[in-house]
Structure formats: C-alpha cells, structure tokens
C-alpha cells in the first residue's frame, strides 16, 4: 500500500515536473525525447489549445453576432 | 543463471567520427556520461553491411550463413512475387529467445527484422510499428502481428507518433532555415519529419515498457541515425565541392541535430532504466562523414551501403564493467555472447562471437554449450508453419523500395524473383567470404557468373576471390573476358588489372596501373595502399613508407595503412616502430590474427618474452588453428624463459590442432627427390602428384610433382588432399608448410657440385646455353644456404621429423638405405621393393672440379 502511494507520488511529481516545462502547443524535440508520457501530455496541451481556440472562436462569433 | 537487468540500445549507423565532435563540445551530455561510467570503443561490422543481416547477427552472435537473414527480400512461397525477409526467415534463436527460455522478462522494440512479433516472455514491438507512410494521423491502422501480446496492441498503437504531428518546433533544431524552404518544391523536410516521428514512436514504446513492465532485458532499436545519414550526410560539414552552397546552408546541421535528439532520448532511457542495470549502446556499422563520402551512390541493389563505414560504436556500462576505459577489437558478433555472460549463461560454441572479457572489471569465467539450438523448451519463437501476414509484407516491401535498397519490379514477378535469388546468393557469397569460407563463397559466385556473365559487381567479386585464393589463371581468364565485354571501362578496369598483375607477381606493371588510376581518380579505391604494396614487393621500402604516410595523413584511422606500415618497418628490422604500427592496427580492428602474430614477432625480437606470449595468445584466441603462434610460445617457454611445465599445455594443444600426417620428400632440385618418390611409392606409400609434368629425358621415370605445391606460399588448402600421402617439396618451399599437419621429411643430400652439373645438363638438354665445364660459385653458395636454412627450419618445428638420405649412398647401397628409411617409417614400407628402384645407369653426374669464380 505504501509502495503504491509512493509510486503515485512519484508519478505526480514527474507530471508536475513535465508540466512545469511549459509544453508548447507546437511541441519540441525535448518533449518527444521524454517518451510516451511527454507525447500524452503534449497531445493534451494540443487538445486544450484547440478547445480554447474553438471556445474563443465561438465567443467571438457570438459577440460579433450580438454586435 | 544470474539475475540482472540489461538495456540494449541500437543506434543504426552511429559512428564516432561524427559523434565525437559533438561530445567534445558538450552537446551530447548523456552519451558522454555513459562513456565516462563504462567502457567504449569501435564495433567492427561484418560483410555485407546490410542492416537486417547485421542486426540479426547482433541478436544471434552468428554470421549470416548461419542465421539465414541474408537479404532484404525473398520469393513468396506461392511464387507470386517477393516478400521481405522477416523474423520467420531466421534459422536460429535470438538472444530474446534464449532469455525467454530462462523465464526472464524480455522485451524487444523495433529490431530489424522482427515482424511479425514473436510470442516471447514480454512485449515485442515489431519493426513495422512506426511506419506512417501513406497514412494520415486520423487514419493510421496498425498491422496485425505488430505487437505481442496482442491485447497490448491498442495501447501501443495510441502512443505512436505520426509524421503529421511533427511541427516546425521539431524541425528547426535540425534545419534552422526551415521557414525559408518551399516545401512544395523541396521534399527533404517532409522526409526528415517522417524519420523524427518514427524515432519518437519507437522511443515511446521503449519508455512505456521501461516505465510500466517488469523487465530483465529490454532491446530497443532506433533506425533514425541511418535514415538521417542517408538523406543528409552529404550536406554535413565540411562542404564538398559537388554540393551547392544553398543546400549546404540549409541542411548542414541535420546530422548534428539528429544526434542531439538521440542523446536526449538516451538520457530518458537511462533515467528510466536506473543506475544498477547493464546498459549497452551499439551500432551495426558506421557512416562516412568525411572525405570518404561517395559522390554518387551506385544504382545497384545494396548501393546505399557504400556510404556505410566498417566501424560502429559500442558503449557498455554496468556493475561488472570497468569505468572510463576504452575497449578494442569488439565485433558485432560479440554482443550476444557478452549479454549471455551478464546473465552467467553459457555461450553457444556455434556462435561466431566472443565474450568481451576485457570490458569486465574481473576476468569472467566463460561457460560454453554446444549450441542453444539443441536446448528444448518454449523460447518464444513462432510455431512451425506460421504464416506471414501479406499486408504487413506489402508495407515493408514498399519501405525497402523507398529506401533504395531494392528495385521496384512492379508486376514482373519472374524478373523480381530471378533478380532477388541472385542478389541473395551474392550476399550469401560475400558473407561466406567474410567468414573466410572461400570455397563456399566462390562456388556461389561462379554460379552467378554463369547465369549473369555481364554483371560487373558479381564478376569483380569473383576475380578478387580467385586472387585471394591464388587461383590466378582463373582470375586472368575472367578478367580478360570482362575487358572484352567492357573495353572502355576506365578506372575500374585499370584497378582490376593492376590488382591482378600484382597477384601475378608483376609489381612493376601493377604499379604503373595504380599510378594511372591515382592520376585519373585521385585518392580513392585505397590506391595509396595498393601503390605502397607494389613498391614493397619491389623492395622500395623508402618510397612505400612515403606513400603509406601520405595515406595516413588522409585517413589516420585506416587500419590497413597502419598494418602495411608495420610490415614495411618490420622488414627493415625496425621492430619498436613496427610494433607501434601493429598495435595501432589491432586498436582499430582487433580481428587480425596475422597482426597479433607480428606483434609477437616484434616483441620477441625486442626480448619482451611475456608480452610476446600474450600477443601470440591473442592471435590464437582469434584463430586457434594458427599453430605457428603456438609453436612460437613453446619456443619462448623452452628456450627463452625456461618454463617447460608451462610449455606442456601448449604442446598438448599443438597436437590437438594437428589435422594429419604428410610425408615429404625434399632437397635441392636434382638431388634425387624424384628417385626417392619412386622408392617410397614402390615401398607402399601413396603419392600426391598431378602428373602434369611427364617423364622426359631429364627424369626418365617421371617428376612426381604437383602444380599446387609451387604456390604453397599463398595457398595451402590443397594439403587436405595430400594428407596421409607423400609429396615432393623442394627445400626452399619447406618453410611454407603450415603447422597444422605433422610432416615426416626425407631430405635428400647430394654433393652440390653434382647437383649444379646435373641442373646444367638438364638446361642443355632443354636447349638452353650453359657452359657445362664451369661451376657457378654463386649457385654453390646459394644452395648451401638453402640447405642450411631448410635444416634449421626443420630442427625448430615441433611437427617435423626428418632423416637425411645421401644420394650417393642410395645409389651404392640401395637395400641398406631402404632399410634405414623403413626404420624411419616404423617398418611400414617394403624395403626390398624400394631397393629395386635405383638404376645406377641413371647416375650420370659425377663431381667436377672446375669452379666459375
């Protein structure tokens, strides 16, 4: 149980470390070199960015329509 | 078995020549750290340098003719075209099969070839995993058989990286001016993106396994450096004259950037693997980054391989491995034996490699078994009759065509099959020749020549093989046919002709050809080495040394140049300097038994006896049949450092390597050797003679010779047929008898003036002008020296016993002499029959007194 907790803590730490590297939407060789975890997080960043863009687009469209 | 963890990382085509400058600048910190924490060196490749062949040799410890992967493709079983050589074409166990049999958690990623993935005790991700050609990010299927176990296929499918995901952020570090490129016109950045993504896919699979699976062994193979090099090494600095300034400016950083990308990936792997495991980083061959880069890649199958260099890299780290040291003489055949040693598992005697014992802190005790093939149990290989997935085969075929390794024959199945069978035969022939199995290789090349008499790369290899095995008549015949076929083929033909002339012992004519080639083509085709060897044959040591130094200024890592320099200096009796050159040679390529032998010879001359023994030992480790080295060790132990006890074990080993016994009749020409041959034949001995030289007035009862013996200095294979027979070898050729047979020598002695007169008579009978009243003194001296040298040689050989027989005694007392000879043969002869042979009437030459001064 303790081992599992330690492992989870470790994984969380790694995730935070990677997150603190500020993954650019365009990715980087460093992110690729980090391996599968880097890719998964980068894809999440891309996904979030697309969502933000879509939200922004729809907000702009809405406000344009309102104006 | 020892429980340990091993991570093997394959970087196809990595070469110190382009890695070292980056390490020196601190741009590859992870590789530098690995080097500092372990041992590193060059890894010599084997011929032919084709990646699927080489990586299978790495994984099996065996040469291609044993493991079966000798080509990129093979005919499909249904005869309808080709399919890639795949993991089912492999004929023996790979390291992962052996480890699976020991229930070790074994994972393999991307190894070439490894499709379809084998059901090993762990995850296997095949070499078709990363390919994203002709697909889109949203529609990128993964072939069945790509991942074992199949239930993990979906997981691994998701962590692949598609080339469409690659952005300018990834490309800029490799092509800083990427934004200026019009990608509609220039497809090279697209190719680069594909390779970056493929590396990332492999890396993701490896990092996932290291992070989530229990593991005892992980082998991961990255083909990226090879692909980057084939695409962009031509633009690497220094700029070459035929490369445009624009291309140079755009692409000169690709190789450096690719290496740094690999260094980052390496860092991640090492982090995940942890500190206490064994790590091995290797490449199967190198890649020329310098003046050796070819201007054009030949458009023939295997053409791209001309860009490869014969040395890859090896770095090893682990609890049992030395730190921050260089290792020398490693071959890619040594990888599997060394991995087995890490697990304290025995090495197969049928493996061609050795354990890299010099890398270990303490000399490990190496265990052996006959063969892992005979060890039963589930080894994780495909079951018999396993069928290959046809779709996967198609995808892989396409990839090979795009890489330029194979030709696209479209629907012309017959042509494709014919050509493929021929190419595979050629590759197999090269592999045999590389493994010193000349006869097997030549048979295949002759078959190819018969079928494709105009295919120059088959023919030139056949000519070289004939030359290497001293079959010069055949070499000349084929060369002349080739010259007729291609009368205008300039430099290549001159080179071939020069090389053949050199083998034909015509160094002056050869030199002329070589100088012509140098003038026309510059410093290619190892031309300086050829010139130096021609000069050396002409005893022009000074000029030869100048040319070799010129070559070394161009190519300081040419082991052949260092070796040639060593032989020149050795011949000049400059043993200390020669030693230095030979040591440099084995530092560059350890697998040179002759060079180790020369090191021993130099050390012996320098009275460094223990070191000389070590050098001869190294020679024997590589080539255990070299009884000559064993003989030298026995000589030192008995005569120089007085250790007869130690000599005993070598004497036993010496006997072990004796293949048989050959009876020799020797002496000067016209000393009665033919007579003795007749007597031994009459006494019951079988004679080894080709009867090419028939009886004539000079030798009324025949010469009893064999043409092959004249060439014994270069070719000794014929001795197999002479085993347990009697053959005639004139005195000055005795020293060329190899030390793996026992020789019973009957040495004929005759008064030298009689010998010379008899020779003069013979010349006169043959129509030559000779003054028979005069005895040429210089011949007298020369023959005396020949006899003395031959006897000294016989006295010093462990495998030689001899008796002196006097020709005059034989004529005067044939029966008495026959009894004496019979005693030497332990009473196995029939002396009464022997005694009937001498015919006093033929004893024509009597001592004459006149001497020519």
Would you kindly provide a written description of the structure presented here, covering whatever features stand out?
- The complex is a heterodimer of chains A (67) and B (853).
- By secondary structure, chain A is an all-alpha fold.
- Chain A has a domain at 23-67.
- The radius of gyration of chain A is 17 Å and the shape is elongated.
- The model of chain A has no long low-confidence stretch (mean pLDDT 78).
- Chain A has helices at residues 2-20, 29-33, 36-66.
- Chain A is built from three helices and no strands.
- Chain B is of the alpha/beta class and 853 residues long.
- Chain B has three domains: 6-70 and 85-390, Alkaline Phosphatase, subunit A (3-Layer(aba) Sandwich), CATH 3.40.720.10; 557-657, Tetratricopeptide repeat domain (Serine Threonine Protein Phosphatase 5, Tetratricopeptide repeat, Alpha Horseshoe); 661-842, Rossmann fold (3-Layer(aba) Sandwich).
- Chain B is 47% helix and 9% strand.
- Chain B has 35 helices and 20 strands.
- In chain B, the strands form five sheets. In chain B, strands 1, 2, 5, 6, 7, 8, 9, 12, 13 and 14 form a ten-stranded mixed beta sheet that branches. Chain B has a four-stranded parallel beta sheet with strand order 18-17-19-20, with helices on both faces.
- In chain B, strand 3 (73-75) and strand 4 (82-84) form a beta hairpin.
- The longest helix of chain B is centred in the first third of the chain and has 25 residues, at 188-212.
- The model of chain B is unreliable at 845-853 (pLDDT under 50).
- Chains A and B meet through helix 2 and helix 3 of A and helix 7, helix 8 and helix 11 of B.
């Amino acid at each position: 149980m303790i081992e599992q907790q330690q492992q989870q803590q470790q994984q969380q730490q790694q995730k935070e470390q990677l997150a603190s590297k500020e993954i650019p939407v365009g990715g980087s060789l460093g992110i690729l070199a980090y391996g599968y975890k880097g890719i998964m997080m980068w894809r999440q960043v891309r996904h979030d960015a697309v969502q933000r863009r879509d939200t922004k687009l729809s907000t702009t469209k809405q406000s344009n329509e309102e104006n | 078995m020892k429980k340990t963890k091993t991570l093997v990382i394959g970087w196809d085509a990595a070469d110190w020549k382009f890695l070292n400058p980056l390490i020196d600048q601190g741009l590859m910190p992870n590789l530098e750290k690995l080097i500092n924490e372990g041992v590193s060196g060059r890894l010599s490749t084997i011929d032919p340098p084709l990646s699927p062949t080489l990586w299978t040799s790495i994984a099996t410890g065996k040469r291609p003719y044993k493991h079966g992967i000798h080509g990129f493709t093979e005919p499909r079983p249904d005869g309808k075209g080709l399919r890639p050589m795949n993991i089912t074409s492999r004929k023996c166990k790979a390291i992962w099969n052996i480890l699976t049999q020991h229930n070790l958690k074994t994972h393999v990623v991307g190894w070439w070839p490894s499709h379809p993935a084998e059901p090993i005790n762990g995850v296997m991700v095949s070499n078709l995993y990363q390919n994203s050609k002709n697909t889109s990010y949203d529609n990128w299927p993964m072939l069945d058989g790509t991942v074992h176990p199949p239930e993990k296929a979906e997981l691994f499918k998701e962590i692949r990286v598609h080339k469409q995901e690659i952005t300018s952020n990834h490309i800029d570090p490799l092509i800083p001016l990427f934004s200026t490129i019009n990608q509609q016109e220039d497809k090279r950045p697209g190719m680069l993106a594909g390779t970056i993504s493929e590396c990332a896919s492999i890396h993701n699979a490896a990092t996932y396994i290291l992070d989530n699976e229990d593991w005892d062994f992980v082998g991961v193979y990255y083909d990226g450096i090879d692909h980057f090099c084939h695409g962009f090494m031509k633009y690497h600095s220094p700029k070459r004259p035929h490369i445009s300034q624009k291309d140079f400016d755009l692409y000169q950083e690709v190789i450096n950037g690719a290496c740094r990308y690999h260094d980052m990936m390496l860092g991640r792997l090492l982090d995940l693997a942890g500190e206490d495991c064994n790590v091995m980083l290797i490449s199967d061959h190198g890649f020329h980054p310098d003046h050796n880069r070819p201007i054009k890649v030949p458009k023939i199958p295997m053409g791209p391989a001309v860009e490869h260099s014969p040395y890859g890299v090896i770095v090893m780290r682990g609890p049992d491995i030395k730190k921050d040291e260089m290792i020398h003489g490693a071959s890619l055949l040594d990888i599997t034996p060394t991995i087995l040693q890490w697990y304290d598992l025995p090495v197969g005697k049928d493996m061609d490699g050795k354990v890299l014992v010099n890398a270990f802190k303490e000399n490990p005790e190496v265990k052996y078994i006959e063969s892992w093939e005979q060890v039963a149990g589930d080894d994780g290989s495909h079951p018999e009759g396993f069928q290959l997935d046809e779709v996967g085969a198609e995808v892989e075929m396409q990839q090979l065509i795009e890489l330029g390794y194979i030709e696209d024959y479209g629907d012309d199945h017959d042509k494709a099959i014919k050509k493929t069978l021929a190419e595979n035969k050629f590759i197999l022939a090269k592999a045999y020749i590389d493994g010193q199995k000349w006869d097997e290789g030549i048979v295949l090349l002759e078959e190819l020549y018969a079928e494709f008499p105009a295919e120059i790369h088959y023919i030139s290899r056949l000519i070289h093989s004939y030359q290497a095995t001293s079959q010069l008549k055949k070499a000349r015949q084929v060369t002349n046919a080739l010259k007729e076929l291609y009368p205008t083929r300039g430099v290549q033909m001159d080179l071939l002709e020069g090389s053949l002339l050199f083998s034909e012992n015509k160094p002056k004519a050869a030199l002329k050809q070589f100088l012509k080639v140098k003038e026309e083509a510059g410093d290619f085709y190892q031309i300086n080495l050829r010139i130096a060897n021609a000069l050396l044959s002409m005893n022009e040591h000074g000029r030869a040394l100048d040319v070799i130094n010129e070559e070394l200024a161009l190519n300081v890592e040419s082991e052949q140049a260092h070796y040639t320099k060593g032989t020149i200096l050795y011949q000049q009796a400059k043993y200390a300097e020669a030693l230095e050159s030979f040591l440099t040679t084995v530092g560059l390529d350890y697998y040179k038994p002759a060079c180790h032998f020369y090191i021993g010879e130099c050390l012996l001359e320098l009275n460094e006896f223990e070191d000389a023994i070590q050098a001869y030992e190294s020679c024997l480790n590589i080539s255990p049949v070299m009884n000559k080295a064993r003989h030298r060790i026995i000589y030192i132990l008995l005569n120089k450092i007085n250790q007869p006890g130690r000599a005993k074990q070598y004497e036993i080993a010496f006997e072990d390597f004796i293949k048989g016994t050959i009876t020799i009749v020797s002496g000067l020409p016209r000393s009665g050797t033919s007579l003795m041959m007749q007597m031994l034949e009459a006494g019951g001995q079988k004679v080894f003679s080709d009867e090419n030289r028939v009886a004539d007035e000079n030798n009324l009862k025949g010469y009893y010779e064999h043409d092959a013996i004249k060439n014994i200095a270069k070719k000794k294979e014929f001795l197999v047929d002479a085993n347990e027979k009697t053959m005639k070898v004139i005195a000055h050729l005795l020293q060329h008898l190899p030390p793996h047979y026992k020789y019973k020598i009957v040495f004929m002695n005759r008064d030298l003036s009689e010998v010379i007169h008899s020779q003069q008579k013979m010349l006169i009978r043959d129509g030559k002008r000779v003054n028979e009243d005069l005895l040429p003194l210089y011949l007298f001296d020369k023959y005396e020296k020949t006899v003395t040298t031959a006897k000294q040689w016989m006295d010093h050989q462990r495998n030689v016993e001899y008796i002196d027989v006097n020709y005059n005694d034989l004529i005067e007392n044939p029966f008495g002499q026959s009894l004496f000879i019979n005693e030497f043969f332990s009473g196995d002869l029939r002396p009464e029959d022997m005694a009937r042979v001498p015919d006093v009437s033929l004893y024509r030459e009597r001592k004459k007194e006149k001497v020519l001064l």
